Amino acid sequence: GKTDKAIASYEVILDKNPSSTKHYYNLFEAHGIDVNNLDDDDREKIIEILNEKIEKHSKLLFLKRFLLNFLNKEEDFRVHFEKYCRHFLTKGIPSLVNDIENTIKTDELKMKVVKETFEKYLESMQKDLTIDGEEQDPMQETFLLFYLAQIRHIEGDYISALELIKEC
After folding, report:
1. Which residue of 35, 77, 161, 166 has the smallest Cβ count within 10 Å?
2. In the UniProt record, does the keyword Repeat occur (predicted)?
3. Which of 151, 164, 144 is nearest to 86 (CA)?
4. How far is CA 136 from CA 7, 56, 96, 140, 165, in A?
5. pTM for this model (two decimals)
């Protein structure tokens, strides 16, 4: 019926323009999902849809970041965030925290995971220049300090943020 046609149409549009937030929300709506009132089944359906898109467009960072918005289980968020974060860290991209700020600033669980991840990586870098047992470029320590300073700034801990910046 109409629903199947709408879903198929949005799938075609998203295959041509996989970075369109608006069209993803339209696709979710065509699936009968109200993103402002998600239950567990709807959330799982969104995650399934986005994971399929990520498989198709594996190099597209937008999809990996967009998925973070819908992950509400600590371990799922941690696994996906660490993968997402490592790209920025290994490439030396300073805008990671700006990129995820809207996802984490009002979600205590996600903020906690992000902080813990940065702190864990920083501790490892300061100890032996590794992350998860893999040797890293020493500059990654600087980026981790910068990322943590940004997190502390978002939290309103300006003195701690400034101290971290001084370490950079």
Report:
1. 166
2. yes
3. 144
4. 44, 29, 18, 7, 21
5. 0.91
